[in-house]
Write a sequence for this structure.
């Protein structure tokens, strides 16, 4: 267990083991919300690594057991990675361009979040090129509700298209479930690019 902790948690995250609590998680959620990233996306990143390290194990974020403390450490490191831009990319279409390709690589249990500021009724198409059965993809809406919490969640599908139901920042989350590193390409396409007409919304106070 010690080797796992040293290999997968930063020094700062390790130093806080045993002292994490739900108030920390609430603070991290507020921090990523300011980046237009939801708590769902943050959980996706932490859960993917946790599942890689402890296959089949579950964690309870309200119980301060040793295994739960490791999850908190993973969530802390991923909050920092989102804030630094290491795990967060904003997709912006150039003038006259209706699609964009983003390439990257993922180690086992790692993930990447992409955000796009789009308008209601726009048509969005996603295509994720990855090795077979190597990744899960989620597509989160700007203002989730009980009726519409997401458009995709932990899906093995590599393509999606549809008309967008809301204005604001959408999140595309790609996480690895492979046992080896792999390269990927995410292609996003819209039916129209409204230069300057999509206002930047205020950062949400809370986004699940």
């Amino acid at each position: 267990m010690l080797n796992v902790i040293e290999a997968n948690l930063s020094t700062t995250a390790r130093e806080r083991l045993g002292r994490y609590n739900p108030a920390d998680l609430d603070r991290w959620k507020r921090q990523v919300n300011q980046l237009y990233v939801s708590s769902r996306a943050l959980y996706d990143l932490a859960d993917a690594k946790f599942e890689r390290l402890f296959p089949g194990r579950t964690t309870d974020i309200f119980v301060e057991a040793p295994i739960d403390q490791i999850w908190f450490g993973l969530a802390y490191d991923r909050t920092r990675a989102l804030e630094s831009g290491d795990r967060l990319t904003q997709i912006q279409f150039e003038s006259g361009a209706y699609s964009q390709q983003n390439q990257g690589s993922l180690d086992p249990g790692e993930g990447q979040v992409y955000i796009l500021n789009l308008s209601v009724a726009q048509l969005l198409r996603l295509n994720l090129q990855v090795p077979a059965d190597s990744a899960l993809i989620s597509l989160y809406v700007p203002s989730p509700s009980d009726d519409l919490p997401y458009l995709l969640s932990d899906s093995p599908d590599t393509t999606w298209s549809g008309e967008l139901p809301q204005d604001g920042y959408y999140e595309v989350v790609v996480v690895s479930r492979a046992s080896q590193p792999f390269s990927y390409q995410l292609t996003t396409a819209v039916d129209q690019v409204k230069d300057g007409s999509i206002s930047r919304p205020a950062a949400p106070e809370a986004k699940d």
User: Anything to note?
Assistant: Helices lie at 2-8, 11-15, 22-33, 39-53, 66-84.
